[in-house]
Structure formats: C-alpha cells, structure tokens
Amino acid sequence: MKQRPAVVLGMGPTSLCLVRALGRKGVLVYGVGLNPYEVSLSSKYCRALGAIDPRYNPEGLLALLIRFGKKFGSSAKPVLYPTGDECVVFMSAYAKALSMHFVFSNVNEQLIEILLNKAKFYEICQQYDFATPPTYLPQNRDDLIAISETISFPCIIKPKYYHDWAMKHGLKKVVFCQDRNDYAKGVINLQENADQVIVQEVIEGPESDIYVVAGYFDKKSNPHGLFSGRKIRQYPVGFGTTTKMETVDMPDLIKQSVRFLKKIKYDGLVDIEFKYDRKTETFYVIEINPRLGRWYGIVEAAGHGSMYYSYLDLTGQTIPGDQKRSTPVVWSFVVRDVLAIAGSRNRHFRDVIQSYRGPRTWCIWSNDDIKPVFAYFLEMIFKAVWFLDRRRQPSGGQDA
C-alpha cells in the first residue's frame, strides 16, 4: 500500500518530533510554516510548501492547501496536522473546505471552543467533575475588581484565548498576582476587556509538581499510545512551556484523562497538563490542548508510537498493540532549559547535572537530522526582529 503524504501546519520546534516520527516510517511529510525560518522546515524529513500564518492570511493558507490537496484525489487524501492553537482554530473554521482534500482528526468547532476557551473549559470540567483550580469568570470591570475580595492569593489573570493574547503580548501567558496590590495593578491594564480573561487561584509548588498525559484517541475515542510524565523545568519560570521532562508512570491520571475525553467524544492527539496540590493531595487539570505538545518527542522515546498511530488510523490502517509501561527517559529543550535554570531561584548545580543523567532525547537535536539545530538560531533572530517591530507599531489600545 502506497503511503499517503502528511501535511503539517506550523513548523516550529513543536512539529519537529511529528515530522521525524512520520518521516522515519517512510511517510512523505510536507510542511507549511508560520514564517519561512521555522526550524522544522529544515528537517531532512520535510518538504517545504511555503510559509503562511493563518492568523494574518487564512484565505491564502486555505488556497495553498486546496491547490496541494487536489493533486491526490479523493481516494488518497493527505493527512493534515495542526501543531499550534492558531492552526487548530484555522482548521476548525475551514473544516468543510479542507475535508474535501484532506483527512484529519476532529476539529468540531464546539469541541475546539470548549478546549481553547479557558472559561468554557472550566465550565465543562465542573460539569464532568474534573478537578480544576478555583476559577472566576468576570463579565465586566466591576466583577474583575470585586474578585480580589474573595479570591485566595497568589492568583493569575489569564486570557480566555492564549493564541490571540500571544499576538499582542509575546510569550507572557499570565499576569501573576502575589497579593491585592499586584492584582490592582493588573486590573488597571485589563479592566476594559474584563470579559476576555479569567482569574484563577495558583496551585503553589515547584515545576516538578506538574504532570502530563498524552496519547492518540481514535474516532470512537479509544486511546492508543498513552504516556504520562512530569515536568522538571519550564520557561518562563513559573508559567511557561516545558524545557525538561521525565517519564513517570501515573496510571490514575491516565484513567481520569481517558474518562473525561471519552465523555466529550474527543479524537486526535492530545496534551493534558495537571498540577498536584500538596496541601489537598489533589491533582488539578490545568489545560487540555487538542494537538501534540512541544515535548511529544518523549512520548515516542518512551516507546509509544502515538504520532504514527494517528497517521495509521486516519488512513484506514490498523493500529498495532502498544506497550503499557513507558521506558524511562528524559526530554530536554536545551537552549530554553538554560534560561530556565538561570531564572530559577532554587537552582543547585548538583540537581541540574542529575537532571541530565540517564537515557535522553532532545527537542531539536537528532543524530540523523542535525540541520534543524542551526536553523533554530536563525528562527530566533527572525522572531526577535518581528516582535520588536510589532512593539514599535502604534496601537489603539491594550486588549487581554
């Protein structure tokens, strides 16, 4: 049987593990970057189709994909993968047109809205008894101000839609409020858009109290290649993205995750994050991403072929049996991990060295695909110039 190609939207570090996982299985992988410097476009397992950011030119991206998809006909549709929230939103909005030329996992608008909208995600978790940190949903400026009288500090103010927030505020994901004074300062900047944010109590504790669950769910919401792990560090410190992770078997968290995802009829690759509260001895779900996470390379290194399983399922092939226990391994995004170590107040040289011992896998580096290492630094230069240029542009106001 001839392998159908795969098309990956968004070619930053997150997509590199997917490109390699499919490419090593003989799948021809094409990539569309958000910009022409994205690191995964340089992988030897990828053929570049171009660079179009769906946040700024969705019609252009749709036209590019349709032209490409028409080459294969209805019986050999390529598999389409999103690797960022902006790509998930794009696929959800244009699902009907895209389905004429591609196969992909569920991007039902209602389901995507539940998972990407932090307020609706909180509500659905309450409905299905999935523990979340205490959360407040202000509707207006007065609500936002009044919350400070009842909430426990520290807390965070974060946007309902992070992918929109990131376009205006860069990588900063939340406004952290240690006390009422911090909260009052945060409200000043956000009060005009109070209905676009949520306020959530912080589950205190180190990054090592953050756990993840990953895997692939087929069209019947049956799980395949389930993995669980624990963060070691993240950047920015406190509220950032993972820079180092290790395999940890957490069967109860996996069961909770499967139960919830079955209830909402989820299918596709998934990234679930929990925070353990040592005071209450409870795991609270922080977020569920309807896509693979940046650290997904550890899933494959731990012995689970979740990414390839998704390809097999979407192309009508049989998913093989998967090992139940994960192989111990540590994943690292070295450049950002250095920043995480530098920014940590409690860093100890011995602990840093210890965290790099044992079997390892890397976000960027691979012995059989080294070009992305050099491309990554070019991408960072491009992003820095882009962000500075955006900051210099005049703005009509500040949104949350």
- Give the proportion of residues in helices: 25-40%
Largest sheet: 7 strands, mixed
At CATH level 2, the architecture of the largest domain is: 2-Layer Sandwich
CATH topology of the largest domain: D-amino Acid Aminotransferase, Chain A, domain 1
Number of strands: 15
What would you report as the Rg, rounded to the nearest angstrom?
A: 21 Å
Order of helices and strands: EHEEHEHHHHEHEHEHEEEEHEEHHEHHEH
Strands across the major sheet, in which order? 13-12-9-10-11-14-15
Structural class of the helices, strands and pairings? alpha/beta
Mean pLDDT: 90
Which word captures the global form? globular
H/I helix tally: 15
- What percentage of the residues does DSSP assign to strands (E)? 15-25%
The number of domains is 3
Which ranges are low-confidence, i.e. pLDDT below 50, for 5 or more consecutive residues? 395-400
- The level-1 CATH class of the largest domain: Alpha Beta
Distance between the ends: 50 Å
In CATH terms, the superfamily of the largest domain is ATP-grasp fold, B domain
